[in-house]
Amino acid sequence: MEIYAFIVLSVLAIGSALGMILNKNTVNSALFLVLHLISLAGIYLLLKAQFLAIVQIIVYAGAIMVLFLFVIMLLNVADEPSLFDRFRVGYFLAFLLGVAVLGQIVYSVAGVAGILPQISPEMERIGTVEAVGDVLFTEYLMPFEMTAILLTAAVVGALMVAQFKSGKVSRA
Amino acid sequence: MISIEWLISLSAVLFTIGLIGVLIRRNAVVVFMCIELMLNAVNLSLVAFSAYHGDIAGQILVFFSLSVAAAEAVVGLAIIIAIFRNNLSVDIGDINLLRF
Fold it and tell me: How many other CB atoms sit within 10 Å of the CB of residue B83?
């Protein structure tokens, strides 16, 4: 049963990722990315990481992708005219480089395939909100607070970068 | 139960798709989304290792990488908006101010 769910979800993930990079329309690419993130959340659920699955949907598919869609509609850019209309050497080189990277990763994973661990018996109880929160607010409290500072700095920095009018940029 | 090799292979394939997308797309926003795709592929392998070791540290790391990805998306999109205001284009071929 889990195997079939995994196959469906991974085909969905790979298909939506391909749809994202091959689509001319930027809004459609963003919506394909949302589908990809939701299917990854399904795979997290199969791995008993409930907390991360929910956070993936709320934060990634909810917040970050809404931000992306706002920016796409704000910029109102036209479709890319010449994607795959004609053959380019660059596409071929990019494909070759991608295959090389994939081969490298698969080779290095295959090298340790025998010594990878089998399923842990503890697996059932990790990944719940209770278990994650328990560790997050005791052992990892300091990095957690640092995350708050990081997000505040990101918001302030984004406002500073994005608010200037063109031509009024001070070149101090 | 799913074997861990399948999860790592799926993660590698998704990472490769993201890499090819970064290389072939010209729109800066789509390039940015491809970077998010690569981040997610690595997150998937972290969750897989965490589940198979029975150790929660991997999931905590994914949590932090998610918040860093949120911060990165905010700042990166602000930079894209600033470039668009000055340049009226998000084509990465047109942005060559720092090219020597």
Answer: 18
Mean pLDDT of chain B: 88
- Residues of chain A with Cβ-Cβ distance to B47 below 8 Å are 44, 47, 49, 52
Question: Would you call A90 exposed, middle or buried from its count of C-beta atoms within 10 A (0-12, 13-18, 19+)?
Answer: exposed
Domain layout of chain A by residue ranges = 2-124
Residue A167 has pLDDT above 60, yes or no: no
**Global pTM?**
0.87
- CATH class of residue range A2-124: mainly alpha
User: Quick check: A29 and A23 in contact, CB under 8 A?
Assistant: yes
ipTM reported for the complex, 2 dp? 0.91
Which of B5, B26, B34 lies nearest to residue A113, judging by beta carbons? B5
B-chain CB neighbours of A117 within 8 Å are: 4, 52-53
A95-112 burial: b if 16+ Cβ within 10 Å, else e: eeebeeebeebbeebeee
* Token pair recorded at residue A58: 């709320």
Encode burial over B13-26: b for 16+ CB neighbours within 10 A, e otherwise: bbbbbbbbbbbbbb
CATH of B4-94, one of 1.10.287.130, 3.30.1490.20, 1.10.287.3510, 1.20.1250.20: 1.10.287.3510
Encode pLDDT of A118-135 as tens digits.
665 655 566 788 888 888
